[in-house]
Amino acid sequence: MSEKKRIELTRLQGIIAIASFSSGVIIAAVCLFLVPPLGEIANSAISIVSELLVLCGAILGVKASYDVKFRKFEAELRDVIENENKHTA
Which of 14, 20, 53, 73 is the most exposed place for a label (fewest CB within 10 A)? Predict the structure, then answer.
């Protein structure tokens, strides 16, 4: 994958994670302070907020896992290329 596409994918993942986290916080705040009875959040709102927060964590977790594995693969590939160059030289 080219560096440009990887940066675009990382940016998209970050935007989705921030949007899902922000949406969860906004829904919780609206339910807590604006929807009667004040100070009580309905079970459906708690469910939506928890799903959005899990989505945020999953996106960031998958991204971190992907980045670690990609860097490891890249380092192994570099080592193989260097070994090939040493043997041919």
Answer: 73
Cα distance between residue 2 and residue 46, in whole Å: 40
- pLDDT reported for residue 27: 85
Nearest residue to 44 via CA among 56, 58, 27: 27
* Amino acid at site 70: F
CB 32 within 8 A of CB 39: yes
Helix, strand, coil % over all residues of the chain, rounded to 5: 85, 0, 15
How sure is the predictor about 89, in pLDDT bands with cuts at 50, 70 and 90? low
pLDDT at 56: 81
Report d(CA 20, CA 4) in Å as an integer.
Answer: 24
- Model pTM score: 0.60
- Domain locations in the chain? 3-88
